[in-house]
Amino acid sequence: MGFTQNTCEEFVEVLASKAPVPGGGGASALVGAVGMALGNMVGSLTVGKKKYADVEADIIALKEKATALQADFLRLVERDAEVFEPLAKAYGLPKETEEEKAEKARVMAIVLKDACSVPMEIMEKCCEAIDVIEEFAAKGSAFAISDAGVGVAFCKGALLGASLNVFINTKSMADKEYAAELNAKADKMIEEYGKKADEIFEKVNARLRG
């Protein structure tokens, strides 16, 4: 697909078009990457500073995690597009005869699971990113604290955005038990990490305005 190789202008242009991909899932993954990068920037501005020598090893380790997560998010931008196209095609399959209806149901079951797997992974990566940013905010340079706040806000936005791409697909699943399992996992991440992201943001805000 190569969407992450586009310029910002090209990505936004295709996102605004009627093209089926990228969509909300891919956009959420990109926002997650930007949020994680902002956290990583806090680390970059902390390493090498005498004032933060006692946490330098921690910051370097956090930067490694952050860099890996950035790459994960960008991979998921592309992966989300890859799994959506078969789903879009499956919705268009004929269902005039009983055989066609059975085949469409079989295909839909497969592609809906694939289409859910990517936004679920985006959500999981957002949770990891929020944990990393929490440490950057606590240990990183005070001069870059606002970037940690922006980063965690973006990661929460990406978490919520990806969740809607889970829910739109679970709603169409014939296997209601499996759909309920996925919904419960997504709800748990939103509850735990949405709250954690808000707490990190408020701490940053209090430090900036105190």
Q: Count all strands and give the number.
A: 0
Assign an overall shape.
Answer: elongated
Radius of gyration: 20 Å
Number of helices: 6
The CATH topology: Four Helix Bundle (Hemerythrin (Met), subunit A)
Mean pLDDT figure: 97
What letter string, H or E per element, gives the SSE order?
HHHHHH
Low confidence ranges: none
* Main CATH class: Mainly Alpha
Structural domains: how many: 1
The CATH superfamily is Formiminotetrahydrofolate cyclodeaminase monomer, up-and-down helical bundle
Which CATH architecture would you pick? Answer: Up-down Bundle
Which secondary-structure class do the elements indicate? Answer: mainly alpha
Please indicate the percent range of residues in DSSP E strands (runs of 2 or more): under 5%
Intertermini distance: 46 Å
Give a verbal description of the structure.
The chain has about 210 residues and is mostly helical. Helix 2 runs parallel beside helix 4, helix 3 packs antiparallel against helix 4 and helix 4 packs antiparallel against helix 5. The protein has a single domain, classed as Four Helix Bundle (Hemerythrin (Met), subunit A). Helices cover about 80% and strands about 0% of the residues. The protein is elongated, with a radius of gyration of 20 Å. It starts with 7 loop residues before the first helix and ends with a helix. It contains 6 helices and no strands.
